[in-house]
């Protein structure tokens, strides 16, 4: 399974900043998640467990905020619930606290799902626009998400660049010796050619 690598710059930018080395600055914190954890990109950083407000393409009115914002994490509610005391919160925020007895708030969930947003990686160049409901599906295929090479060479590239790397450039990709027709890692082929029994001198 491919590994998504994200670095958040806590002082400069709300969008994820992709790093190719574990240490790229004293203010950066490295986070690694797998391809099925794109929610970590959507929720952003810090205490948010709900959606990041910054990815919305429409402004929320004060009334919207009282209906759509989680009273615990202050993000836009993910799987909106309402507590027995009337507080609005994400389902995960309710589960993390024994103080809340929650039930699904279906009408608010429908409102939130229809909100218009940009891709959380707009700062990296992605121009996708859509609804919050479809954003997680978009991130599963977004070419601007960075992943680690599945051939375990250690390279981290944008998803759309990584496929080319794995097919044409990765030192761990398999290539065929044109003399004996056996398969070798690209990085091992030169060594093999020096002693290939089928190679004509």
Question: Which class best fits the helix and strand makeup?
Answer: alpha+beta
Q: How much of the polypeptide forms β-strand, as a percent range?
A: 15-25%
Over all CA atoms, what is the radius of gyration?
23 Å
| Number of DSSP-assigned strands | 11
Report the principal-axis shape. Answer: elongated
Helices, by number, come to 7
Poorly predicted residue ranges: 4-37
Spatial order of the strands forming the largest sheet: 2-1-8-9
Q: What's the end-to-end separation, in Å?
A: 43 Å
Tell me roughly what share of residues is in helical segments: 25-40%
Order of helices and strands: EEHHEEHEHEEHEEHEEH
User: What's the story with the biggest beta sheet?
Assistant: 4 strands, antiparallel
- The overall pLDDT, averaged over residues, is 77
What does this structure look like?
There is one protein chain. The protein is an alpha+beta fold and 201 residues long. Helix content is 25%, strand content 21%. The chain contains seven helices and eleven strands. The strands form four sheets. The protein has a four-stranded antiparallel sheet. Strand 10 and strand 11 form a beta hairpin. The longest helix is centred in the last third of the chain and has 11 residues. It is elongated, with a radius of gyration of 23 Å. The two termini are 43 Å apart. About 17% of the residues have low confidence.
């Amino acid at each position: 399974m491919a590994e998504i690598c994200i670095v958040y710059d806590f002082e400069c930018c709300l969008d994820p900043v992709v790093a190719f080395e574990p240490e790229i600055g004293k203010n950066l914190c490295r986070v690694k998640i797998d391809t099925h954890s794109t929610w970590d990109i959507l929720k952003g950083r810090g205490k948010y467990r709900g959606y990041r407000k910054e990815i919305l393409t429409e402004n929320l009115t004060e009334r919207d905020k009282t209906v759509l914002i989680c009273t615990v994490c202050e993000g836009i509610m993910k799987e909106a619930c309402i507590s027995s005391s009337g507080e609005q919160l994400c389902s995960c925020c309710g589960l993390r606290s024994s103080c809340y007895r929650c039930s699904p708030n279906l009408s608010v969930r429908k409102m939130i799902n229809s909100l218009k947003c940009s891709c959380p990686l707009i700062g990296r160049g992605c121009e996708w626009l859509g609804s919050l409901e479809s954003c997680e599906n978009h991130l599963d295929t977004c070419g601007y998400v960075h992943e680690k090479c599945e051939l375990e060479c250690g390279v981290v590239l944008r998803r759309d660049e990584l496929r080319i790397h794995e097919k044409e450039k990765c030192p761990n990709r398999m290539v065929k010796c044109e003399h004996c027709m056996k398969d070798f890692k690209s990085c091992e082929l030169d060594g093999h050619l020096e002693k290939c029994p089928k190679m004509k001198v």
